[in-house]
Amino acid sequence: MIIMKTDATPEQIAEVVKEIKKYGLRADVSTGAYRTVIGLIGDETKIPFDHFATLPGVKEAMRIETPYKLISREYNKFSETEDERFVVKVGNIEIGGDKPVYIAGPCAIESKEQLFKIAEGVKKAGTHILRGGIFKPRTSVHSFQGLGAAGQEEAREALAWLREAGEKFEMPVVTEVRGETQVDLVADYVDILQIGARNMYDQDLLVKAANTGKPIMYKRHFGASIEEFLSFAEYIAAEGNKNIILCERGILPVGKGKSYTRYILDVGAVPAIQKETYLPIMVDPSHAAGRRDLIFSMSCAAIAAGACGLMVEVHYNPAEALVDGQQMITPDELKDTIDACNRVHISIRPRSNIR
Amino acid sequence: MIIMKTDATPEQIAEVVKEIKKYGLRADVSTGAYRTVIGLIGDETKIPFDHFATLPGVKEAMRIETPYKLISREYNKFSETEDERFVVKVGNIEIGGDKPVYIAGPCAIESKEQLFKIAEGVKKAGTHILRGGIFKPRTSVHSFQGLGAAGQEEAREALAWLREAGEKFEMPVVTEVRGETQVDLVADYVDILQIGARNMYDQDLLVKAANTGKPIMYKRHFGASIEEFLSFAEYIAAEGNKNIILCERGILPVGKGKSYTRYILDVGAVPAIQKETYLPIMVDPSHAAGRRDLIFSMSCAAIAAGACGLMVEVHYNPAEALVDGQQMITPDELKDTIDACNRVHISIRPRSNIR
Amino acid sequence: MIIMKTDATPEQIAEVVKEIKKYGLRADVSTGAYRTVIGLIGDETKIPFDHFATLPGVKEAMRIETPYKLISREYNKFSETEDERFVVKVGNIEIGGDKPVYIAGPCAIESKEQLFKIAEGVKKAGTHILRGGIFKPRTSVHSFQGLGAAGQEEAREALAWLREAGEKFEMPVVTEVRGETQVDLVADYVDILQIGARNMYDQDLLVKAANTGKPIMYKRHFGASIEEFLSFAEYIAAEGNKNIILCERGILPVGKGKSYTRYILDVGAVPAIQKETYLPIMVDPSHAAGRRDLIFSMSCAAIAAGACGLMVEVHYNPAEALVDGQQMITPDELKDTIDACNRVHISIRPRSNIR
Amino acid sequence: MIIMKTDATPEQIAEVVKEIKKYGLRADVSTGAYRTVIGLIGDETKIPFDHFATLPGVKEAMRIETPYKLISREYNKFSETEDERFVVKVGNIEIGGDKPVYIAGPCAIESKEQLFKIAEGVKKAGTHILRGGIFKPRTSVHSFQGLGAAGQEEAREALAWLREAGEKFEMPVVTEVRGETQVDLVADYVDILQIGARNMYDQDLLVKAANTGKPIMYKRHFGASIEEFLSFAEYIAAEGNKNIILCERGILPVGKGKSYTRYILDVGAVPAIQKETYLPIMVDPSHAAGRRDLIFSMSCAAIAAGACGLMVEVHYNPAEALVDGQQMITPDELKDTIDACNRVHISIRPRSNIR
């Protein structure tokens, strides 16, 4: 990390970036209110920090020993104020801002009618952003893989419905990209690209998605520690895209016998991640619970823990959903959940100052 | 399970119990507002249910195929109304009642002075029940094992302090029993016996503690599924002691690298357990987090998920605590936490009716 | 699954396949010594099995309720003899045949010289197939990502070295593909495509790699059950490519504190997988152990459990390796390991017939 | 740790021990061929090592920062030669010696006849030590808990059968103690006390069992890291009983879906533990596999990894066993397993010298 002097000139900054490239690394230039900080992307062991410290305009040059630094509080505190959060703006929605943001919609888009009916319902319930799966990651090749599996044309059609539903009901839209070849196609239609839990480690997909410049909704793998999750989020940031919305969606259960939830919602990850990074962190209670009757309680818990919002799967008739029906709630139930979460959000103010 | 007719006489009930014993099993008689249900403790495969169905006063006789039944909603719905919760009363405190109950105190009692100072602090913060460890389960034999380790006399002295502090500050008291030989001693002094996570599977200790008749604060092992947790709680109920307070305190993390919390608070276990049993379920955020700066958020999350209360470790000066100082908060911080939790508790009403 | 009569004609088989496609599914035609079996790829709930049972040449038509069937023993027992294993042939090497097969080489190819020096060493030690990483999956974007990260041209150069080393030392070669866009490039140069643990769930990559027709070395994710592992292997088989070499490389450890190995080698997975599928299963002791001093013991254990071979990382000077040096052994140490493993392989004959 | 001079007198040693007690700690005196080393049991932070270094006969006084030290190689290398293993002798059986030792018998003793029939069978198969459960740890209070559950008298009767069977077929005997109150009773009858996985953390039971002076067969909990396992083994050693036989019996599986084995046999734990401690480490394939058809392979793997022996559950008719029948093998199958394991044991010599 190279910390520039407060009066460093753009030319001096450019010179440092040029010098960094000589050593085979890339540079992340972060300009704050008071000063500019330049992060190094790549293997810092190759960098002679003593040499960099002597360049014009440089205040300090030091090595940071963490697997993630561009997204870390430690790095960003030099350019921003320490407690400042990072807000991802999508249209006029602020993710990570003062109010919880709700993303909802069907697990999988099944038809235009189904999508529009659910979109209307979730909008009325208080949803800000519409979701709908087109490329579904599935454990069995023999299960329904989403409309996108049928071919390029069918994928375009479903994406167009999503776009149209978003416009009609005035919500930005998000869908999952599961493979590199889907990225450009999907980016033509949606406001946010989602990278699912199973693709968390897929660094080539991360790089490809990051380069669309679109905000990335990035979900934690169910077998990943927080440190790994943030380390891989750094792949997105390293491409210059810091519009990253982190999402906790449950980790693997332990023990013999039934855990009664599909995954374990790691609610402590919410405040723990907030101590590490300025990125917003949401929660997906649907996949964590895997059953509809716990969604309300787990949603309230997520907001109480400080999550900046929720991503919830909704269907007007969960019993007939093609995928994951048992974990979907109805628009009416979503409304109850959102209302309660909004009350919880207020009730936890003021936050504690325990350090 | 034997369901008696609504007009079954005490003699008929006694006759059924007698008959059960003939087959080498024990009976749990549960008398509700409308009818009596008799649970079987032991191997039901030995029981000729057809024969029992013909006994006078018997309405129905059937086998239940779960590892826990005496504490299950399924069993208790016959004698109680389905949605009725089970409240454990300790003095005038109702655990599992209308308001959250807070248990707080030092991890380990270090001296009379330390205990009284903390007791006073937590009482002012809104605590209902005082905790303090005397027999500490520790990973290393070379670590401080609690004052009880010094001998019987030292243990009695520390227990007397706890009793005295409870009386002075008007709080019932709870401490952990780690081994069978400590049970009778501890039961002489405290209102609630705690069985810690590491002893969750210790069925002989469970039986011994249950037979004191005292309420049992029973913590989930960090490697146990909910099904296992409830199956072992059944050992307590099988002794006729249903004053069981369940406590979630975090399970093992997954993944390589840092999880940033000591354990994973399984917040979904709270509503999941409430669907299985009528027993009250609390949360211990201190052990789950393992760090003080997350206690506030994780406490709010636990109450938002529907927990009936919290157990929190407190020290007026966490830095000088002999055990687990990094996870303790001060009495002032506890007050902020309790105040916020009480607000959260109100904010989640009305609860959802999602089924 | 459609089981054809022993005297079914090619025309009848073609007719059944055509009929299957009408319902939107794909067909896997498996021709054995005695009869042909047709597997269905896709959602079988759409198929009217009664109707299929009446088609000419069909003996039986039935639904199979497992997430993997094309690779299952259950499916293949109809077309092959039950105990017959499936051998993947690469040049004149038989993986899954009568003798253990050893794959070895550097974790990452660092230079032509390094590669050739190691290739020569491992060949002398008894290695059959040469490995070398060009696209490295890494937790940190700031770590060395393999020579392939530098660009298309550098990747081609490294691939050409690998090809050349394989030819010089008479070993087929294998390298990892980490993203879809690398598949065609890599397939031009190597005999086996490796899909690493972190990409296990990446179904688009599986499909892409399967369609090269090359054998796939497919590694289990560290957070995946065996059922999940085999379910995702089915994505490869569903493309008509059954040249799949499964590889166990260690799963996540449990418990607080040190496990002393990087991952847990699930040695029981070897015989367990053999009961489920006819595919060969290898073991990678290097990633499982994460330390060189346990490679010998864990290799012997893998072969004793019945693994069809090993994949081992080797460097002539582990201390100077750019990636994972602590887990690499030298060619001499590899020779000791291979020699012992070959002795173990003989010592476990005859295998038990315990069912 | 206090390292005495080679010519230190017994009086000087006694003086050091006395001085240690002044600080509230206990002393472990380990007398080797060349010198005596005194280990400190308790909180070493209370000890002024500078002061101890000046006492007559003391060569060096230093603090060891591990949770286990009395059983560590680091501690014992001063009194013994580094590579020397520690052999636990039971009658004329050497556990941890030159040959694998086999412990076998029924999971639960059901009757005298059942026990004697199995004892005869396992003896013929090559078993050295007879096992048989009397106090069974069970997940459900409604399952068969072993003959010991019926009462003190029934427990004595079953213990006497075990003793008698051992004498008749010339095998030392071992059974599990599940609670403190069973220890003295059991110690009257058996040669080795077993502490099961679920009691691994039960430090009061460890202390009580250690003080019988009998060898302890100590099993790893399924949710414990190796570091925790060894830390708790130290509770036994701290009582002056170092006749500890460690036993790996499988840890919790990961991932969604079926793992196809009941637990994961952590075969890497065998050599990893051998690097940490001089204590012998065995493997229990029966509980790890949870199914009989994998016992042969997993046993061979355990011996190949360097385990000093096996503990296997055997029944002449697994289908009629009251507990865990699905994981038991017959005496004939045990013979095949033992024969193969003995061949494997020879095949892995010479062991590698990889460091």
Keywords:
homotetramer; 355 residues; alpha/beta; eight-stranded parallel sheet; four-stranded antiparallel sheet; 12 helices; 33% helix
Largest interface: A-B, 64 and 64 residues
* Share of residues in helices of chain A: 25-40%
Count helical runs of chain A: 12
Shape of chain A: globular
Chain-wise SSE layout:
The structure is a homotetramer of 355-residue chains.
Chain A: E1 2-4, H1 10-22, E2 26-31, E3 36-41, H2 49-53, E4 58-61, H3 73-76, E5 88-90, E6 93-95, E7 101-105, H4 112-125, E8 129-131, H5 152-168, E9 173-176, H6 183-187, E10 192-195, H7 203-210, E11 216-219, H8 226-237, E12 244-248, H9 269-276, E13 281-283, H10 285-289, H11 295-304, E14 309-313, H12 331-347
Helix pairs in contact in A: 4-5, 4-12, 7-8, 11-12
Walkthrough of the structure:
The structure is a homotetramer of 355-residue chains. The first copy, chain A, is α/β, with parallel strands linked by helices. Chain A contains twelve helices and 14 strands. Chain A has an eight-stranded parallel sheet with strand order 13-12-11-10-9-8-7-14. A four-stranded antiparallel sheet of chain A has the order 2-3-1-4. In chain A, strands 5-6 form a two-stranded antiparallel sheet. In chain A, strand 7, helix 4 and strand 8 form a beta-alpha-beta unit. The longest helix of chain A has 17 residues. Chain A is globular, with a radius of gyration of 21 Å. The two termini of chain A are 26 Å apart. The mean pLDDT of chain A is 93. At the A-B interface, helix 8, helix 9, helix 11 and helix 12 of A face helix 8, helix 9, helix 11 and helix 12 of B.
